[in-house]
Fold:
Amino acid sequence: MKAKHILIGIVIAFTGGLIALLSYSIFFNKGSRVITARVETPVRYANLPGEFDETSFDFTYAAEKSVHGVVHVTTEMSGQTYRNPIYEFFYGDRYRDPEPVLGFGSGVIISDDGYIVTNNHVVENSEKISITLNDKREFSAKIIGTDPSTDLALLKINSKELPHIEYGNSDDLKVGEWVLAVGNPFNIASTVTAGIVSAKGKNLGIIQDNYRIESFIQTDAAVNRGNSGGALVNIRGELVGINTAIVSPSGGYAGISFAIPVSIVQKVISDLIEFGAVQRAFLGVTITEVTANLIKEKGLNKIEGVYVSDVRDGGAAKAIGIAAGDIILKINDVDVNSPSELTEQVNRYRPGDKITVLIKRNGKTKQFEVTLRNLQGDTKVVKAGRYDTILGAKLVELENSEKKKLGISYGVRVAELASGKLRTEGVKEGFIITRVNNKSVETTEDIRRILESSKGGIYIEGIYPNGVVAYYAFGL
Structure:
């Protein structure tokens, strides 16, 4: 009987152990599967991927794609000659030619056959331009065209199969997105810095042009002197901007830098390649930002759009019925809430192109289809270096050789005189206009703009080919 009890105890113990073992196995196997199911993304090392990977925060891919497409730009122009009359009285007219003035900046190769984008202020008034590639090869460059209104310039070197940077889409950039600035700060070799997009559509008023187009991308990527004209790229290594300016009390980097968006760059460069001059379209309105003060002053009900304070006679807007007091809300279905945003949108087009403009008037919206015009109020193509008839004279822009010969940096030559103000005031053919109303002029367009914005008297300064300086003043 005792043996029977022992046997029953053994069976019970064995059965209990077996049940416990099975329960343990089922429970912990189930737990293992739950843990495994939660690990959905494998761990990745932060090394260079074979191709761009959106999940990688390693900037080496973008840097490698862009650094070879950025060049060092060296410019040279004649220095000014300073003469000492006392020295010349005692020792005669003996003075040496001045040392050339050198400048430095950056540029971006945009095609494998040698087109390079940089800032206008990098190459302005240059007589000689040299390009150094990232592999240390050097080339002479010529200027294809410049656009002071956007501070852009297009250069060309004679070479093939060059590394270049593909255009990206600056419209798709988001505030907070990573970007890289690539250039040659302080005249050293190519340098890459990283930052984020801090803001878009910034208007700083730094471009010295009556018809400036400013809608900068603001970043905190470190940019210093020499970076001007360099590349701003996204993390895919695509060009999204041309680095142009910093805001700094000391002249060095202070945490804010600005780049021209590639949406503007593409249009300007395309025009310079095709026409040699930018085909700039104008809506023909004077606009201002809608602010809280403007809402009170004009009795508006909402801060939105851009306020039209005036429309230009002969302009595209007035021809279609847009009037002072209207609020422009959209250009081609794109919201515009600042003058810089509106200007950027309009300047993507050429004279003769049609756009849709959505406005609000007396609380109601209305849409117009507008055919854009150029500054002269028509849709004709503007040719580079063409004669321009102003004040009864045919004017032509100076070649660099003419500037060098006369020791000047800018000017427009009177090529031919007909009946008009200049002939009446005694101006002779060959006279070179350097300043109008105390403003320097480099192009015929500069003169036209100054005249259009002037009221009353006109004051012209200039020089004749024999070196005689002359001044003329007259009323319009």
